[in-house]
Amino acid sequence: MALKKLVAGNWKMHGLSNDLAEIEAIAAASSEYPEVDVALCVPAILIERAARAVPGFPIGGQDVHHAEKGAHTGCISARMLLDAGAVLTIVGHSERRDAQRESDAEVRAKAEAALGCGLSVILCVGEMLEVREQGAAVPTVLAQLDGSLPDRSTSDAELAIAYEPVWAIGTGKVPTPSEIAEMHGAIRKRLTDRYPGEGERIRILYGGSVKPSNAAEIFAVPNVDGALVGGASLSAGDFMPIVAAAAGAG
Ligand code: 13P
After folding, report:
1. How far is the CA of 71 from the centre of ligand 1 (A)?
2. Are 206 and 221 in contact (CB under 8 A)?
């Protein structure tokens, strides 16, 4: 079953007031591709301004705290994201799993907190280079999924998975189509086992050095239902050809 593709930009720690114009450009150009869902996950401090600048275009956060509220200096709750105008959030990005030492259990709690508030979630998994070289990429990613997948019984908000091999992020290196197919197929199987009836409809995005030059090839891989795009999402000039490739892939 072909799912509607989702192309989400992850702006990471990029974006100032001046860049709202780029968000407006991306939102305006995306309206020409109704066959693709497009979203931008921007720094938390830009969410409210971005959401006001592009009404109806999905703006998201890049992380969320698992607690509803409390003494968590510097952290942002799901309700705060929602209150600022976000409709989705990333959780479990490898840059946070690594630098903030986020565990699978913490990622799962974050996903459940966000979904419970009605935010859609893009949950990231992916292996390090050594793991792939040892031939252990698939079992490693499946174990990450087992630890981080949320309970789906309490919310209808959408869950998507992003497979982002750590060694492909920001490096220009990309797995081969057959490596992506193998991993996405294994993730699909895990999702259908874990969420009977829903697992077939959960979108599995690929992330890691997606560019205009390789997007069409990646979108043609079975079980690739979209992309999570870092660097190339910062400008409409780079991002929109990726959205167009997703539209072309049907
Ligand atoms: P790049 O597209 O810059 O490699 O980043 C991928 C990523 O980490 C998206 O979350």
Report:
1. 31
2. yes
Q: How far is the CA of 229 from the centre of ligand 1 (A)?
A: 5
> Of the candidates 234, 225, 247, which has an alpha carbon nearest to the alpha carbon of residue 26?
234
Cα dihedral sign, 161-135-2-146: negative
Mutate which of 95, 228, 238, 239 for ligand 1 pocket (most atoms within 8 A of beta carbon) = 228
Q: What is the spatial distance between Cα 104 and Cα 184, in angstroms, rounded to a whole number?
A: 19
CA of 58 to the centre of ligand 1 (A): 19
CB of 15 within 6 A of ligand 1: the answer is no
* pTM of the entire predicted model: 0.98
Of 83, 81, 90, 86, give the one whose Cα is nearest residue 10: 90
What 8-state DSSP symbol labels residue 85? T
C-alpha to C-alpha distance for 111 and 202, rounded to whole angstroms: 14
CB-ligand 1 contact for 208 (6 Å cutoff): yes
Tens-digit pLDDT profile for residues 54-105 = 999 999 999 999 999 999 999 999 999 999 999 999 999 999 998 889 999 9
Write out pLDDT tens, residues 117-167: 999 999 999 999 999 999 999 999 999 999 999 998 878 899 999 999 999
